[in-house]
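[Automated response] Your request has been received and processed.

Submitted sequence:
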Amino acid sequence: MNDKVKIKDLVEILKKRFLLILLTMIGITAVLIMTSLYLVKPTYQYSIQVLAGSLGMDDQVSSMNKVQENRQLALSYMDTIKSPQVMTGVKEELKLTGSNYELLKQISVTNRDNSQIITITVKDSNPELAKSIAQSMANQSINRFKNFANVNPINILLDSNIIEESEHLFPKIKFVIIISIVVGFFAGVALALVQEHFDDTNFSDAELDLLGLPLLGKVNVNTKGKKMRKIRYKTLSIEKRGEYSGY
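Generated structure:
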């Protein structure tokens, strides 16, 4: 019974403070959307894949040795990608002003278990720069690894018919709008509850009982749709006032 009363009271508060909740939700939603679009730097991601070793197998006897060789080749190549020589070469080619450590934080190199495919991913606020860094890093790391290890079967997996662009990771406008509306709504509800808590102009039946005040009755003051009749009062003259006062 108490839960039903609390839910009913909450619904009444939401109805009474509906305008406050709506304005709060609109204001917070607008602020969050404008902040994410104009103040927060966007993040773009570009990935490029490199194949280490050959995929063909001559016979079953040599296949095991080939798999082991390709695995070692992939692991060795992954160590070369983030080497200082490759980082410096990428910075010189693209004329980047940041340090090697800052460039290294933008790059991630992944490889699934027993896979010959290495994925180089670069994140940056500039989509074209992210793509350029990924391509430069793949090319320079392959060239340096071939020169050091004297191996050839390392190539970039790229379809010439597909023009890949950087992926927009954040902020995504649909996600931002949904989150902003949810945050704005709950903020409006919280503000309405706080305002209701500090509002001492209205008391419920339960609050009157707690204060020890008897409830004699209720008056419906809803005059919506009804016309109020105005009554004009005339000011009495001095003689009339004397007659009514008994003088």
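Summary generated for your ticket: The chain has two domains: 2-39+172-207, 43-169. The chain has a mean pLDDT of 80.
If you did not submit this request, please reply to this message.
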